[in-house]
Specification:
The chain contains six helices and 27 strands. It is mostly beta strands. Strand 24 and strand 25 form a beta hairpin. It is globular.
Amino acid sequence: MQTRYIRYTIFILLAVLGIDTMLAESDIKRLADGLEYSAELQMTTADGENNPLWLNANKYGLSSLDTQNGYLRAGIMRDMAADSLRKWGIGYGVDVAVASNFTSKFIVQQAFVEGRYKRGVLTIGSKQHTMNLKNQELSSGSQTLGINARPFPEARVEMPEYWNIPGLKGWIAFRGHLAYGIQTDDNWQETFTQKQSKYTQHTFYHSKSGFLRVGPDDKRLQFELGLEWGCQFGGDAFLQKEDGGMYKCVNESDFTAFWHAFFPDMGKIGDTDEGAYANSLGNHVGSWMARLTYKGNGWKVAAYLDHYFEDHSQLLFVDYDGYGRGDEWNEKKDSRYYIYKFKDGLFGLEATLPKNPFVSNIVAEYIYTKYQSGSLFHDHTKTMPDHVAGRDSYYNHYIFTGWQHWGMVIGNPLYLSPLYNNDGTIEVKDNRFVAWHFGLNGNPTRDLHYRLLATWQKGFGTYVVPYDDPRYNFSFLAEASYDFSRVKPLKGWSLKGAFALDRGKLLGDNTGFQVTIAKKGLIK
């Protein structure tokens, strides 16, 4: 009976998610091979204004700022690794949670089906994806495509592993992805803003990335260089009038909009309300990323960079500044450009130590976001032809609600997520900051794992609304987990405990504890 139920569940899941269900009975049986189940109970209690940063950040949005929160989570999942010996493979999963004091009571965290042929993968649905070029457990987070917000339901084509370009003897390899999806936080936005400040509905999402690796995988020294790009576009934006009322801005959502999300035509076509100063269609963000790794005998060390941008000024560090005068004030006449400085970025070091019972990995990161192309913002006019487009305001946008989903920034959580706002506005109110972040983990025993995080941050607010005085913050996390699998009656069970705190005026004084009990295993 159990086996039959599993087969029918797989069949229905594949049908709902759009996969061809005209499969033989033997194929359906094989698609149950490697099927895993998981169940998890998490409880958090804290004292202060909010749940501490490292008890809610970088958890794919399955978290809460409320000081008393928890969830019961369950899922089934089949990894495509079960078909690793075949040219093609199929994976799928459903992962849901019932939550208390979250932005939702019932959460579909993941629901996807994916197929692989050789190296190419197509994924349909919501799935949690890892960060690029960073330690998943110890880094403060990626600046563009991070792990801080809920995943989007999307169609995603990907080459997840490096592919050696033919004829180059493995010296240059490529990987990347392309995805289109949609935001799912429409109701939350209406509730959070009470329709009294900017919010959006039916907003589309686009992301892509491409990475080159120089150096064969078996060599000691390797260099990786890549680009992450994200975009919010389409749908409807509800914007505030000067008299306090709201008006509707209908953004382009046709095929042209999807094309310009993929290939932004910067400076030639813009959103509905941009007028003569049109920049690009949608809210485009991205990061230049690089990583240099040296591998020794049982150890390795790496230096990496994540440089964030929102337009030409930090994408190419140059902007056009050769406009005409008088009636030709908006026409390009001369070969003149404005050069920007390279200041902003996440700069990191990671060390993996030889196997020992104390420390396995160490991460140190420095994040600087104060420059944002400078404090001066001036578009050219008939009387002043100079064009200096600074004051970028990272993660915020004039029409869209910025680089966030369900109130959590999609990138690095050290940018103050809109969910922290008490005035019902969806915007990042602290995006100019300097921060130091440290992390380390280890396995004192075969079954015991721990990690420590410590972050110091100095926030300046934004260029438009700066803080009267800089606001400081210190956040700390101590977490340990124990796997009981070697105790036969408790096989598959694990217990995790965490203590975290915030101190300072940026996040407030918060102290919290979190306990997670989990069970996982194979469905036979």
